[in-house]
Amino acid sequence: MEIQTVRVPQRAYYGDSELELELPANWEVVLKPMPGWDAPALSNDQIRAALAHPYGSPPLRELARGKREAVIIFDDMSRPTPTSVLWPLVVEELHAAGMIDDQIRFIVGLGMHGSHTREDMVRKLGEEALRRFPVYNHNPYEHVTYVGDTRQGTPVEVNNEVWACDLRIGIGSILPHPFAGFGGGPKLILPGVVSARTITHNHGPLQTAIRARAAGTLAPGHLRNEIWQDMADAARLAGLHFKVDAILNGHRQVIGVFAGDFEAEWDEGVKMAKRVYATSPEPDADIIISNAYGKSNEGMISAWSPGQAVGKPKDQVVVITSPQGTVVHYLLGDFGKRAEGTLARERMLPPNVESMTIYTPYPEKSALLMFTRAGNVVESDWSRVIRKLADRHPARARVAVYPDLTVQYIDQAGAA
Known about the structure:
This protein is α/β, with parallel strands linked by helices. It folds into two domains: 3-32 and 280-414, 2-enoyl-CoA Hydratase, Chain A, domain 1; 44-276, 3-Layer(aba) Sandwich (Rossmann fold). 26% of the residues lie in helices and 24% in strands. The radius of gyration is 21 Å and the shape is globular. The two termini are 33 Å apart.
């Protein structure tokens, strides 16, 4: 069989390499990168300039003057933020205000994801951070302080260490999110460093009520929806003083930085985010290849990305080759046939997807059930994937390849 090849990025945090996928030569292959895929990375001086000109806030060095203790909250391995590039420039600002290393600590905003090992922390921050500063996991089950209720009735309990510091800083990215519209901004507080009770209300009863009265608003690209507003209320109650959010290209490089008050900087950042990440659908495709890269340990996002229902029924292949495997998720995950996360639910195939194949050289049967219903095929041999698809499409096929459907999102307005 004559072949053609297409390359997609893989192994975020584990070498950030490319994977070559072989496809039949008679298939029509359409590569669908997001508009900002190859945008140039910012220099350190450009990032410094963004920190020096924040939105809705004095510069960080002014906020930090006279403060006793600073906490830097950062996102976990489920997000592609190159935190190791950003934190040294944030610490520069704290040093300029007269703070010393002993006044600074880091906390990873895990929400209800599994805790991080030292190796994970090094991949996110680099060795220097662990040598110079204490770096802690967030525990959503203990050591939290109640600080009030949001307007939607979510009780907000925030990490004690975060609450004890008189300067609270976040480092993250503005990225499309399945129900918050876009992450970044307040999301590093809720779910990042609040209690299981807080997260469960926001992700569960509140989300169910919103979907019942405002169907379709909880999707990537929908700005300031009610879930996001609830997160913003929580971040105000928790006293998030300064937020640094990155916009990323398709190679996990920083191409934009927005800093300051978390709502003001987010409002500016999402303008760029929509230009960078929004990708038109391919309604005539017979097969979708949904690559998972930036959020590779939440590859189920690429399985469920909106827009796949546009056009005729399709076959879908989800590609994940990260050694991380699937994130431990205490709220949504499965922990046995009789032990599920509080909000674990039956997963069905996305609309208009006739079959789903999950391709990974790191199969894990139990965790992969988070993708959709049991019975979906998991393959670790790419040639078997192609043979199955070729049997279903013996003459020819039109194939849409999305290089990272965990970060780019399908813009329904772009449908022809």
